[in-house]
Amino acid sequence: MTEDVQKHSVHTLVFRSLKRTHDMFVADHAKPVSLDETSHKVKMAAKLRADYSAVLHMPVLKEGKDRPLGSNMHGNQNYLQPGDDPEYLITGTHAYPSGPGVALTADTQIHRNPSEGGVHAMALALPPSQARLDASRTAASVGDIHRHAGGAERSHASHSHAMSLLEGGGTKNSSLVARKAPTMPKPQWHAPWKLFRVISGHLGWVRSIAVEPGNQWFVTGAGDRTIKIWDLASGKLKLSLTGHISTVRGVAVSTRSPYLFSCGEDKQVKCWDLEYNKVIRHYHGHLSAVYDLDLHPTIDVLVTCSRDATARVWDIRSKANVHTLSGHTNTVATVRCQAAEPQIITGSHDSTIRLWDLIAGKTRATLTNHKKSVRALALHPRQYTLASGSADNIKQWTFPDGNFIQNLSGHNAIINAMAVNSDGVLVSGADNGTIHLWDWRTGYNFQRIHAAVQPGSLDSESGIFACMFDHSESRLITAEADKTIKVYKEDDTATEESHPINWKPEILKRKRF
């Protein structure tokens, strides 16, 4: 039998609630507990014994007086000063150790630290130590590195750039040497690039470009699901290939066989035989859109990367999935291959770059310096270096370990594509349609281009999705969001006098991240 629950009036319930609230907050829990002097002394004594027992007998310089470390630290002046105790003696650290038959006088009985002026005088009189010489030599070599290194992110001169180096020697006097602040070396002059040709024909965004090894024609893939082959000299359409059922995101032409490879958002990777203009192989395995692909320069291997956060290594002939390179945590946007180690480099929307060991199928190194998605990579054709493009910065790295060189700052947009030629011209193309050209060695931005969109297009359709130099490196081809392919060439009439470098030797502010 259930008991009847006692019913209370609303008035009673409200007052009970008020009482509970009052009881809960009557004590101010944020108020510190009052200090108990006895327990605090015990605590401090235990802490001193535990942490400083080895040096409790030694004095410390405190406001001009020697004071034992074990003294009360809270204002109680009930300890003896060293001079107050006639028997006070410091063992083991005395400035004048007592020898046999040597009596301590009133002056030598108490340990006194040498004055600061005396220390300096002693330091100047002594010959330079090997450690000091090594330190000064190291500092100079670091200065040389900073002076001659490629330009990093530049800033205005800091007020505190004057550094002083203290040199002591038997014959040399001490001097304060103002070291010159490191400056950006003068960049190499490059001729400006100008728009040479605009090619229309695609019915969607042009997403990818590849130039064939003979430099006679080039290939583009677009959002209209077609692959088009164009004559490089005239810009005329030679052939259209259909077969993909979604945007074609990557194309590559083999240097070792008459094959063209393509990949797209339909998860398909296709191999086209250019003698018959037909698909002869499919590479199945990716679970989502395939965003980029690249061919290994020396072995018959194809590497693709996808929105499924993996890159896959394929044997071209057998269609076998040799490795699945997993480790990225988001879309892998770009992949590059080279003959030397690391043979595969990937950039991802997880803001990292990974260097891969092709034989083991594992990561050699992960570069985590970028803060935003890495959508573009460019390998220097002659140097053993790499550039990576992101919305925060363009960064340069050395192989094989991925050591950071410098930042190229100023292209404040989402960088979708990059290319570099043998003359050291780095091109970055961005989502807003701007192209920046940089001197590779110094990171100097020598030209900025924003070409007009195709007539009939919206201004918002200004965007660069891919860019590439042809094999002669005299033409720059860009794939754009206004459905055109634009071809640029160097201005033959430009000279260093007519287009001088607008360069000032600014103070370097080197960013190490």
From TrEMBL:
Chain positions of WD repeats: 199-240, 241-282, 283-324, 325-366, 408-448
One of the record's GO cellular component terms: catalytic step 2 spliceosome
Pfam families given in the database record: WD40 (PF00400)
InterPro entries xrefs: Prp46/PLRG1-like, WD40/YVTN_repeat-like_dom_sf, WD40_PAC1, WD40_repeat_CS, WD40_repeat_dom_sf, WD40_rpt
Residue segments, region Disordered: 149-171
UniProtKB keywords: Repeat, WD repeat
Signal peptide bounds: none
Stored SMART domains: WD40 (SM00320)
Family according to the record: Belongs to the WD repeat PRL1/PRL2 family.
The name this protein goes by in its record: Pleiotropic regulator 1
